[in-house]
Design a protein that fits this description.
Elements lengths: L1 E4 L7 E7 L6 E9 L3 E6 L5 E6 L5 E7 L5 E8 L5 E6 L5 E6 L4 E6 L11 E4 L9 E7 L2 E6 L4 E8 L2 E6 L11 E6 L5 E6 L4 E7 L4 E8 L10 E7 L5 E7 L3 E7 L6 E8 L5 E6 L5 E6 L4 E7 L6 E8 L3 E5 L1
Antiparallel strand pairs: 1-2, 1-28, 2-3, 4-5, 5-6, 6-7, 8-9, 9-10, 10-11, 12-13, 13-14, 14-15, 16-17, 17-18, 18-19, 20-21, 21-22, 22-23, 24-25, 25-26, 26-27
InterPro entries: Cycloisomerase_2, Haem_d1_sf, Lactonase_7-beta_prop, WD40/YVTN_repeat-like_dom_sf
Pfam families: Lactonase
Protein name: Lactonase family protein
Length: about 325
């Protein structure tokens, strides 16, 4: 497992750890490469290369070759075309990378070369308007679609691939009531449902694809009824079998667990469990689907939970100290 970090403290860059998929034990931490603020990570489809945002004001993204021992060799470092890049994703073919720039309010598309390196941006979408500042927070490819969560514009954008370029189809696939602040989202395997976690609203908006557009079908709080403090949601993931959905709360410092109706897509919250740390910015499920791991940025630890595959509920196992973890990648 690779761990992206912020390097404004004791962290020196991108770390590699070993995870036991039988016991949930996490250890053998070592520095994979010394580099500044590798804050979000993704693999190439063949897992020979790794890509990161470098969350600086000027904004960069980097490509790396994965060596036999798990260490990384820097291949390319290119401008993110906007301040504060915070999210990176790659398409299924491994030919294009999308970067979301929170500070700049732009989304940039990059061609991936056959040797894993990156060319300069081929397209840059500026979501800023005269009366409203954009904060592009995440983007995901799905077949010929590119979806973008824009927290500043309070919308999910949809782009369509045409002649090898992405063209804007919709600047809001559904109307978001109030200002919930869409941050990250998870798409079902068949592309029929999109689940959006809202940073400001501490909620999940459930969206269903129709014949030619989308419709809002559900809206659920991520917080315990007893929690009254401030909160900012962060990350969201479906379970491997898509029967459960998980979201992270920064403030309540919890993971919210939802049971999902496979036919209707509707959600029912069944658990809020402490992350045993502070500020869970990102989390992931291990390749077996039996464990969930949480990166707690402010408490400098990664917490490991077992997943009850029949109920979806989590049980805390243990944690390990890691400097300023903000992204986890198996």
């Amino acid at each position: 497992m690779y761990v992206g970090t912020y390097t404004n403290g004791v962290s020196k860059g991108l770390y590699q750890l070993q995870f036991n998929t039988e016991t949930g034990e996490l250890n053998t931490q070592k520095l994979a490469i010394n580099i500044d603020n590798p804050s979000f990570l993704t693999y190439s489809p063949n897992r020979k290369y790794l890509y990161s945002t470098n969350g600086t004001d000027s904004g960069f993204l980097s490509s790396y070759k994965i060596n036999n021992d798990g260490s990384l060799t820097l291949l390319t470092r290119v401008s993110s075309q906007g301040k504060g890049p915070c999210h990176i994703s790659i398409n299924e073919e491994g030919t294009k990378v999308a970067i979301s720039n929170y500070g700049g309010g732009t989304v940039s598309i990059y061609p991936v070369n056959t040797n894993g390196s990156l060319s300069e941006a081929s397209q840059v979408f500026n979501h800023n308007a005269e009366d409203k500042k954009s904060h592009a927070h995440s983007a995901q490819f799905f077949k010929d679609d590119l979806f973008v969560a824009d927290l500043g514009r309070n919308a999910i954008y949809q782009y369509k691939l045409k002649n090898n370029n992405y063209i804007l189809k919709s600047s809001a696939i559904v109307t978001m009531q109030g200002n919930p602040g869409p941050r990250h989202f998870s798409i079902s395997n068949n592309g029929e449902f999109i689940y959006i976690i809202n940073e400001y609203g501490s909620s999940i908006t459930s969206v269903k694809r129709t014949s030619d557009s989308f419709e809002l079908i559900d809206h659920d709080s991520t917080l315990s009824e007893s929690y009254k403090g401030n909160n900012s949601c962060a990350d969201i993931h479906l379970s491997k079998d898509e029967r459960f959905l998980y979201g992270s709360n920064r403030g309540e410092n919890s993971i919210a667990v939802f049971k999902r109706n496979l036919k209707t897509g509707m959600l029912d919250k069944i658990q809020n469990i402490s992350v045993h740390g502070d500020w869970p910015r990102n989390f992931t499920l291990d390749p077996t689907g039996k464990f969930l791991l949480v990166a707690n940025k402010k408490s400098h630890n990664i917490s490991v939970f077992s997943i009850d595959t029949s109920s979806g509920k989590l049980t805390f196992l243990h944690d390990i100290k890691v400097p300023t973890p903000v992204c986890l990648l198996f």
